[in-house]
Amino acid sequence: MHMKSFPYEKISFQVISHLDPRTKDIVVRRFGLEDEEPFTLERIGEKHGITRERVRQIVEGAMEDIRENITESRAKDVVEDIFERFEENLKEEGHVKREDLLLENLRNDSSPFHVLFFLNLGDQFLRQKETDLHHPFWTTKEEALETVPEFLQELHEYFEDKKEALPMEELRSIYKNSKAIAFSSLLEISKRVAKTHDGKWGLKQWPEVHPKTIRDKAFLALKHTGKPLHFREVAEVIKGLQSRLSSKIHKNILPQTVHNELIKDQRFVLVGRGKYGLIEWGFLPGTVKEVMVEILKENGGLNKDAVIEKTLLQRHVKESTILLNLQDRGTFLRDESGKYYLKRF
């Protein structure tokens, strides 16, 4: 839906025009109304020779003065229209929205600081400050100031227990709070949760959600493909996934670099010439012979065909390589029935 564009800069200076020069300067600097970063309370206090607390009191008093003055000024109707637009946008987003995303929604071509000024001016708009759990957000529902952080903590604990990324539909089923709040807006607010390349959600600390290194991206590439790949193929899959990942883009994904990283990480198993699988898929580490030893340890005596079959499930090699290893009489023994066993020392 197309929303009306407002000249926020013009209107903001109009509604503060009645303030005395010092108060106006403090408000302008505090909210960044002259297109520069908002000043801290301390910095404004230093400029005017007053305490941080006194600056806060002046800003608070000025905002109340502006609200009262608007009701009798020519700007009343346009300010009410601005507030109505803000309320409509928040309603569409489920009544809560991460601050930076809300400002981007509302700003048009204006400075986001002017939008932030009007959000602070409207009594109906409530802000929850940033914590280590979530980004700052705005809401029109007072109860959301408590329920949203509580839910995000609950969600974080749920993921820690579940230990896997989940689709949106499954996450909705565990959400027991106000149904009026859009689930997608809640997830955006969280600092600890992010979307995977395939649209699921999980903890940012997980490599499959927020892969930071080439190794993590290689792990994700194999998980995404679901089968062993040559290291050159792994590099190509990483390149294809980069734009869909929540982590930084590695500009140079060289096959040899990928190969070097795969060798160093115990999550990966070399299953053939240059081809890697994941140990979590059940691949045994080690050489072909070491894998054959483990197979016979687990299964006891096996005939030639069974040894070949089980070894080929673990390694992408030629049958002749397996047969050559079976000829190692220092490791393998064959009985009269043709079954192979491990030599006992």
UniProtKB/TrEMBL annotation:
Alphabetically ordered keywords of this record: Transcription
Key word Transcription present: yes
An annotated GO BP: DNA-templated transcription initiation
All copies of domain HTH HARE-type, residue ranges: 212-281
Gene3D superfamilies found in the cross-reference section: RNA polymerase, subunit delta, N-terminal domain, Winged helix-like DNA-binding domain superfamily/Winged helix DNA-binding domain
One term of GO molecular function: DNA-binding transcription factor activity
PANTHER family named among the record's database cross-references: RNA POLYMERASE SIGMA FACTOR RPO, RNA POLYMERASE SIGMA FACTOR SIGD, CHLOROPLASTIC
Protein name from the UniProt record: HTH HARE-type domain-containing protein
